[in-house]
Amino acid sequence: MFNSLSDRLTATFKNLRGKGRLTEADVDATVREIRRALLDADVAVPVVREFTGQVRERALGAEVSGALNPSQQIVKIVNEELVEILGGETRRIRKAKTGPTIIMLAGLQGAGKTTLAGKLAKWLKGQGHSPILVACDLQRPNAVTQLQVVGQRAGVPVFAPHPGATSELEHPAGDPVAVARAGVEEARQKLHDVVIVDTAGRLGVDADMMEQARQIRRAIVPNEVLFVIDAMIGQDAVNTAMAFDEGVNFTGVVLSKLDGDARGGAALSVASVTGKPVMFASTGEGVDDFEMFHPDRMASRILDMGDVLTLIEQAEKSWDKDEAARMAKKFADQEDFTLDDFLAQMQQIRNMGSMKKMLMMMPGAQNIRQQLEQFDEREIDRVEAIVRSMTPHERLAPKIINGSRRARIARGSGVHVSEVNGLLERFGQAQKMMKKMAQGGGMPGMPGMPGMGGGGGARKGAKSAPKKKARSGNPAKAAQELRDAEARRATAAKALPTGASFGQQGGDFDPSQMNLPKGFDKFLGK
Hints:
By secondary structure, the chain is of the alpha/beta class. Helices cover about 50% and strands about 5% of the residues.
């Protein structure tokens, strides 16, 4: 969604790197490029004007002029201002003091309210709640049936006393206000602690729709009224949001279709213009593609700083703790890492969701976005098929896999022998790395890991570092030695890989500069 905006901002900050002091002209040029990037992303003009004004004022102030690294300070300011226009802080659902918490959904037809109702219910169920869905959209053909299907997928009951309209010409039977009231009463009787009311939408904002939504709100007195908006509608998002705010006085915003390829200006505009926080985001078509909206994390994604906290939360939610404990014990006991272990770890990663989405949450991912987009998720299926085509003994002792065995494994998994060879080669490298880490050697070029026998320092018996050569007593020769040393340091500095395009001094991230395992470029789909 924010790829274009992220690319533009990244390119803008590149021009600031390496400058020890920023002039007013530098600041003006940076603010001008930020303004263009935001306007190209369909951010509302008043929001752009306010945002760039704040950035310019702070960039010309003492916090930048007195900073050790002015360019990084500019990035910090832009990040803080992005967090501010996205809502400032994470806003959670306000729960009822007594009785069930009532959540009413409102929005235009096609914004994804019905699907999002199921996603929200599934998310709340995962939080330990007992939600129920109430079908109050009786106008749109088959809307009630759709909600029932979504509820079934989410494993949540649906209260739907009326089937609603089945065609555009049919007049809907039933009163949506009465259904909403009865749905809340049903939740009280069956001890559901959350009620999610799906209301009707229209192709445009009209008086009848608003009046019906107001009547439902007065009848059930919801704790939250969530305005569902399509993140892909661009500049019109502001006008639609303001009309709904005036009509139903919503308390929070939910962004749907955040995984689309549009420019995403709606997300940066609605919260700032309406003053109502973005609370949730729909990030895909699956019932689990739903997450709480964190302004600080979204700002980090836009600025290509990654979203490691969300990645950790996904891992904690889906990771098998018993399997993790087993692997930790095996690692501590310095046992061999087998293909069965490799298969188990792959299944753990698959439980976390899309590999592309996870890798795009890493800092600096925008620089390898093209390789990530070319990555085929089915590659994991092929690797799993190869391992499952091996016998139990072959998985424990892959060294016995000779040419005939490799041909048999390739036939059984439907791949070429070269793919089996590549997997075994990569696994051999991973096995050596795991063994070295378990023995206390750490990762290549890193000190030993604490608690793994290395004691955080060099391994016992390792050769000591060579002593520094004494400088010559000849002044001319000593000067030449100093120049040679400076040249070597400069060459080494150029060879070092760097992270994202800002946040650290240096060049762009380039996977080819890193000491990656052989075949990793193929894993990225390069």
